[in-house]
Write a structure and sequence with these properties.
75 residues; alpha+beta; three-stranded antiparallel sheet; 1 helix
């Protein structure tokens, strides 16, 4: 597959739900790899991070669609 693949990472950090979207060359992203991205984003080395979930976003990014809002499928 050509280009970068987007992934949505959901996790709990210090009892607060968080999400982040990243792009990488690989077509898969393990929980361990996702945790590295999370740790880079949080400055506290003692942050309690758990419940990491990774979802591949294989459709192109549509700036007209706001994340978290239900959208009818296009087409």
């Amino acid at each position: 597959m050509n280009g970068k693949i987007r992934f949505l990472i959901s996790y709990i950090c210090d009892n607060q739900p968080n999400t982040m979207e990243i792009s990488c060359e690989s077509d898969s992203l393990s929980v361990e790899e996702a945790e590295k991205y999370i740790r880079q984003a949080h400055t506290s080395k003692n942050a309690a991070i758990n419940d990491i979930r990774v979802v591949g976003l294989h459709r192109p990014n549509n700036p007209a669609v706001h994340p978290g809002h239900y959208q009818q499928p296009e087409g």
